[in-house]
């Protein structure tokens, strides 16, 4: 255990989050997502895991250390429900609350069509699989910057 680090963040995930640069994306995905095969196409090239936790819990852990690019653009995309672009699932609502809490205000997610999500995930820095069993618990997160002090 380390002080001030969420225990859900394992060494491999922390290394990947630290290695990412401004504008890099990561895919945080549920248990039904083809995570291993998609991860092989990413920059990292291997699947990372935050096992046995929901997408909401994993997002909270990630946002405890990862800055979002929200001042410039929407920074978190959600996989859209097929045929229901405007539907926001329970897991997506819960994740939105974690994003807003981390950002200290409203930072709305944007929708990504399911098959477009798969293709965008292949272009990500990495894929992190969670233990989320609810459908549409898949998100793309864009890393922002930490401004200098003062």
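Sequence proposed for the structure above (150 residues):
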């Amino acid at each position: 255990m380390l002080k001030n680090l969420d225990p859900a963040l394992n060494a491999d995930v922390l290394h990947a989050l630290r290695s990412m640069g401004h504008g890099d994306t990561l895919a945080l995905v549920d248990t039904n997502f083809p995570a291993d095969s998609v991860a092989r196409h990413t920059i990292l090239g291997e699947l990372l895991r935050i096992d046995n936790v929901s997408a909401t819990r994993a997002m909270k852990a990630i946002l405890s250390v990862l800055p979002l690019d929200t001042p410039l653009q929407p920074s978190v995309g959600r996989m859209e429900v097929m045929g229901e672009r405007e539907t926001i699932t329970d897991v997506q609502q819960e994740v939105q609350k974690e994003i807003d809490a981390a950002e200290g205000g409203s930072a709305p997610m944007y929708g990504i069509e399911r098959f477009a999500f798969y293709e965008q995930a292949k272009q990500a820095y990495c894929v992190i699989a969670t233990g989320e069993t609810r459908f549409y618990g898949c998100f793309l997160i864009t890393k922002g910057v930490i401004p200098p002090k003062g």
